[in-house]
Specification:
By secondary structure, the chain is an alpha+beta fold. It folds into 4 domains: 3-160, Ribonuclease H-like superfamily/Ribonuclease H (Nucleotidyltransferase, domain 5, 2-Layer Sandwich), CATH 3.30.420.10; 169-246, Zinc/RING finger domain, C3HC4 (zinc finger) (Herpes Virus-1), CATH 3.30.40; 250-308, no CATH class; 319-381, no CATH class. 31% of the residues lie in helices and 20% in strands. Helix 1 runs parallel beside helix 3 (113-126). Pathway: Protein modification; protein ubiquitination.
Length: 381
Amino acid sequence: MMEEGTLERAHDLKPSPSDSDMYMLYFKGLVCKETTELLVGFGVAILDQDENLLFQMKGPLHGSGITDLEAELIALKRGLTEAVSMGINHLSICCDHDQIFELVMGRSAPEVNNIALLVDDVQRIRQQLKSVIPVLVTDQNHQASFVTKLAMEAIDYEISIRRSMTCSICFNNNFKAEDIFSSFLCSHRFCKKCVKRYIEVKLLEGGVPRCPYYQCESMLTLSSCASLVITPRLQEMWEERIKEESVPMADRVYCPNTNCSSLMSKTELSKSIKQGCVKCTMPFCINCKVPWHDNMSCNEYKRLMGTNLTTEDKKLNLLANRMMWRQCGKCKHMIERSEGCIHVTCRCGYSFCYTCGAEWTTRRGCSHKEEMDGDLCCDAI
């Protein structure tokens, strides 16, 4: 779902309305199709019963393929949210869009899912007010023209920014508007080439892509990155990373089949030690994190493996030593550190020292942790 971009407010006065005070909300969402890239802006104004302006707001809207109807509903949603935050109890919603008026009145049903979700949001926020009266006005109405102007100003400002835009990653400012990517939650902008490469690296590292701007925590989504033409392989990887983040670290279980490695949650598995992968169906031991060991207990298997390694295990250990890989002390997966701090966190959530393998804690740790400079440590992670 699309969200507002950078907002500009004015006359942000907080009224002290009584139960009988009636206020008016004017709103407008505009889609500009005259440029090489779709630009969307919105304007909101709240007036008292004497038509004195109490609040106004304008800003861009960012998202892939926003329609006129979506832009109008997002503007209305934003206006209603502000009215509630201002303590208003009675409100007239002044619409100059016939279809919006019919949707708000409940006379027509949304035809597509994203419109239905926005209408649900509008009705939910509307219920927080004591009374709401939708009013159909003409686009010649003075206040309707005023919020239209606010929306146009937001679009004009967006155009001016894009013309003088510099990518925050490569610092290049010599590209066309269609080569710009904007994170719709925070409005930070980059060239598409840099963002696409950043997403690929982030996914390969096992993370979920966020806005690449320094210290920005806004999440990127597959829908917001549609213009980047993400490959099917990266899309699948992205969906897997999202699934990983939804499962608490302590509950994550990975299939030991090297050709699968599918993620499962302990809460979705039975309490049996012997499990079957939900994807490849291979049976495995949830305690030992290995393919199922027939006719052996976990202790017997561990004793046997300690003294009787297979040829494949010996090759893996030799390769791990040569490549300086480390084995997670909890889930036993091999980990390779490409750069950065010696404090590493496995995808299962276990943190340890990459130099000696000791568990990493915030209060105390191995001697290597004590020797580290504070600015190199990642204890906050």
